[in-house]
Structures are given as C-alpha cells and as structure tokens.
Amino acid sequence: MKRLEIFTRKWYFFVCLLLAQFLLVPFASRNFAWEDISAIVYTTLGNSFQMGLGHSNVFFQALSLVFILLLLICRNRFSRAFHVYVAISYLLFAFLQNMAVTPLYGFSMVTVNVVMFLLVAFVWIGECVRPACSCSFTRFRWRHAWMIAFSLFAYLFPFTLEGAWDVNPVHFFFKNSSTAFCLMTPLFLTLITLNLLQVSIVTYRVTALIGVVMGLYNMMSFLNPHTVFLGILHVPLLSISLYAAILSYRKKHVALR
After folding, report:
1. Do 162 and 121 touch, CB atoms closer than 8 A?
2. In the β-sheet with 99-102, what is the strand arrangement from edge to edge?
3. Of 41, 98, 136, 196, whose CB is crowded by the most CB atoms within 10 A?
4. Residue ranges per domain, the chain?
C-alpha cells in the first residue's frame, strides 16, 4: 500500500486516470460501432444486471442497513466485518451496474467503470487483509457533520424512478441504493472521514478520486429536464468525494498508515 500511496501522489497517476476514460472503450458482443459508443454505455447502464434484481433489492437494502447499524453500535469490534462488506460491495458494483445483456448489443460492458470500481475494491480488500482504518468514532469533528446529511440523502434515495419525491421509509427496502456505487460511496467516505485521524490514506484517497470521476459524469444529468433528479441525487457523491480527496492530500490531517 505504501507504493500505491506514492503512486497516487504522482502527476502520471492522474494522466492514467484521464487516459482510461478514453482508452477503455465499452465492449459489446454484437453490433459494436465506434460511433455508437455513447449508445452502448447508455443502454448497458439502463439495462444492467442491477436493474433486474427485483425483489432481491429487499435483501441487499436490509443487509446494508444491518451492517451500518452494527458498525455504529459495535465500532472497532465490527470494523473488519464491515470492511469485508464494503470490499464485496465494490466488487458487486463493478459487475452488477456495468454489465448487461440486451437484444441490440448482446453482452455489453462499460469497461472503464468496471476497471475503476475494481481498483476501489482492491484497496478495500487490502484493508481487510491489513486493517488500518479505525472505526472508534471517538474523534468526531462538527465540520464533517454536513457529510452525514448528504450521504444519508443519497443512501435513502428519496425519489421514485420517475423522479417524484418518495420519502416513505418502507419504500427504502424496495429501492436499489445499496447496490449502487454512486449512492453508497458517499456513505462509506463519510464513515471514514468521521475517523479521519485513524484511516488508511490509500483506501480513502482512491475511493474519493474514483468518486469524483463518477460524480462529474453524473452532473450531465442536469442537462436533461427529465433526469435533473438524478443530478440532485449525485450531488452528495461529487461534493463528498471532492472534499475527501482534498483531505487525503493534507497529511497533517490524515494519519499515513
């Protein structure tokens, strides 16, 4: 992890991250055409395996809630189990959200998202093997309190799929926020930030930087009047990820482990 920490500070890390957005083109087993890349991405994300989970969403939503509550109650005694949950979550995000089977394109994949999400999963797996993050929540700072409200907004997903407000707590269990990178990452980063002086800087930084990339992509939702609610829903991802990324480069505020 020490080498990865150094690598993420170098200018060429950002060059690699930027080039990946252009070089890692989506894959389609049928009807692939360079001029249709945007359509392949849109079709894949709109018909991803995640969108077909159906009643399984209840299980994933309940499981996420249980793990979060147990972490807050048991704290460090449950931190290893929580880290395993987060690592597995990012593996699921990579495959469930970015792969689909459609009549037009056959099996398709948003390659760059898969690679980025797997990178985040990798650093969290490292956290499971060699824990560096403390979850004692004993160093709470009020200046981070805004993150709690923002991350809960994304996690609770107070909209219907059509964009109408939906604040019925029962409906939470039938949504799919727990299997969405963009809705869970703000919460994971918030939990780490609340233990800011006892974190793994690599895990924190990589998660935040990929969150910034995905947050910027989703700001495009504001350009379509029918998807403005999605843009609003992704404001926590961009704002929290950007804030966490900045903190991760301020060594005096983050313990290097």
Report:
1. no
2. 27-28, 106-109, 99-102
3. 98
4. 2-253
Per DSSP, what are the bridge partners of residue 107? 101
**Which pLDDT belongs to residue 139?**
74
SS3 of the chain: the string is CHHHHHHCCCHHHHHHHHHHHHHCCCEECCCCCHHHHHHHHHHHHHCEHHHHCCCHHHHHHHHHHHHHHHHHHHHHHHHHHHHHHHHHHHHHHHHHCCEEEECCCEEEECHHHHHHHHHHHHHHHHHHHCCCCCCCCCCCCHHHHHHHHHHHHHHHCCECCCCCECCCHHHHHHCCHHHCHHHHHHHHHHHHHCCHHHCCHHHHHHHHHHHHHHHHHHHHHHHCCCCHHHHHHHHHHHHHHHHHHHHHCCHHHCCCC
Average pLDDT over residues 74-88: 95
211: nearest Cα among 150, 252, 137 = 150
pLDDT score, position 251: 61
Here the tokens at position 148 are: 């709690």
- For the chain, percent of residues with pLDDT exceeding 70: 97
Statement: residue 253 has pLDDT above 50:
no
Tokens representing residue 228 in the block = 């403005």
- Give yes or no for a contact between 177 and 157, defined as CB atoms under 8 angstroms apart: yes
